[in-house]
Structures are given as C-alpha cells and as structure tokens.
Amino acid sequence: MQRVCFLLKVREDRVAEYRERHASVWPEMREALSSTGWHNYSLFLREDGLLVGYLETEDFEAARAGMETTEVNGRWQAEMGPLFETLDGSRPDEAMKPLTEVFHLA
C-alpha cells in the first residue's frame, strides 16, 4: 500500500468556501474516489490556505487515472479549480505532486 501526501494552496480569500464545499462532498464523488482506489483520504487546511492531502492506495498513478475516466471528477475539478492559487494551467487533481516520505513509524 502506498501512502501519498501532497500540498496545494487554496486562495486565502476562498478558504471558507473551500471548507463549505468539502463539508458536503457529492455522494457520486465519494463513490468515485472509493471505487478507483483512494483509501483513508484526508484533507487538512490551514487558515492561510495551505492544503495537505493524504491518502493510501495500491497504485497512485492508477488511482489518478481511474478518477480521470469519471464524469463526476471533471465537474468537481472545474468547480474547485478557481479556489486555488496558481496551478500552472493544471486542474487541482493534476497539480498534486506527491511528497517523498522520509520516515514512517509502523
């Protein structure tokens, strides 16, 4: 099982909206994440907009590719994209760059 952690930056003036949207993630988005291999998925958000994501999956690239094939993911990314700082032309899900794990207490 891979443990994946990534950072993104929510626009500081949109932090409250980001929290609100994630308080009621669409059921079909939740189902798509689960069915494509996103397990133990959590998002943590600081008041300045720093977003930390964590998930466990058998294969992160396969999990990302699986989400890419779902219609709901395209709609979700289109709605979430404007809430983020510079994504270099990418959607939020495309801008996730996994951090290198340097320690894990098993």
UniProtKB/TrEMBL annotation:
<protein>
    <submittedName>
        <fullName>L-rhamnose mutarotase</fullName>
    </submittedName>
</protein>
<dbReference type="InterPro" id="IPR008000">
    <property type="entry name" value="Rham/fucose_mutarotase"/>
</dbReference>
<dbReference type="Pfam" id="PF05336">
    <property type="entry name" value="rhaM"/>
</dbReference>
<dbReference type="InterPro" id="IPR011008">
    <property type="entry name" value="Dimeric_a/b-barrel"/>
</dbReference>
